[in-house]
Amino acid sequence: MKENSVVPGDGAPATKSGFVALIGRPNVGKSTLMNHLIGQKIAITSRKPQTTRNRIQTVYNCERGQIVFLDTPGIHKAKNKLGEYMVYTAEHTIRDVDAVLWLVEPDAYIGAGEQHIAAMLKDSRLPIILVVNKIDRVKKTEIQKAIDRYRAFCPFAEILPASAKMSINLDTIIDALFRYLPYGPRFFDKDTVTDQPIRQIASELIREKALRSLGEEVPHGIAVTIEQMKTRPDGRITDVDATIICERDSHKGIIIGKGGSMLKKIGSEARPEMEELLGTKVSLKLWVKVRRNWRDSDVLIKNYGYDKKKIDE
Hints:
Layout: E1 16-23, H1 30-38, E2 56-62, E3 65-71, H2 81-93, E4 99-104, H3 112-121, E5 128-132, H4 140-153, E6 158-161, H5 170-180, H6 198-213, E7 223-231, E8 237-246, H7 249-256, H8 261-278, E9 281-290, H9 298-303, H10 308-312
Parallel strand pairs: 1-3, 1-4, 4-5, 5-6, 8-9
Antiparallel strand pairs: 2-3, 7-8
């Protein structure tokens, strides 16, 4: 990805383009930031840690050039094979980018997670821009303390306070990235927003609504698969059949809810966003299946879309 690193001159591109990884511990706001930077919801969000499981690519375009964002799972201590896949995804993404956006929270001390990320980035020689996110939650004095703390901790190209949720200082982040990206042509046409297949986005929308509706224990053990997605001949309605996978019979009961109430809630909340995504009305049917300990099964995590080989391609 470095072959376009040329200084503009006769016949050289006047625009900049490059790949940028968003990294950080779980639940620091990476997906929210990416969605707001590109002005469109692609990655799902929730207050639950480890919401993002796969690498998600989105494209930002402007007159200055193109930024390809790579949202990654939160870096954490893996407790199962799915967790190992998520950490593998995040760490390997850094090998293929031109710059890094490292997100932290202003009220978080520099713990083992941050130290691990710093060690991982130490020999990368990439420009690392630290984003102190969620500044809307704390006083200005706390923001400055966090900036000073990190400035002494690790050499950064820049340290920027921001709030992804409140869209504070997002233009500043874009400006900073363009300062460090190489000159070169756009990698994708201007209409490209993401590389995510429609089915993948639809399944993630359903998982997001489940994450937001269910209790603390269940969400970590669920996956969503799209069994069928077919638009009717008149083009007005798309039939979508999806299955929510869980690990225990007790979880299945919680997901379905009394009289199917929870499953209906998840479906009714997912449907409007799926209709916006597909541009048609959606007839959504949901089922729930138990696959015990699927997060520790190489075969099942691959079947549900978490395949290390795709990361290495």
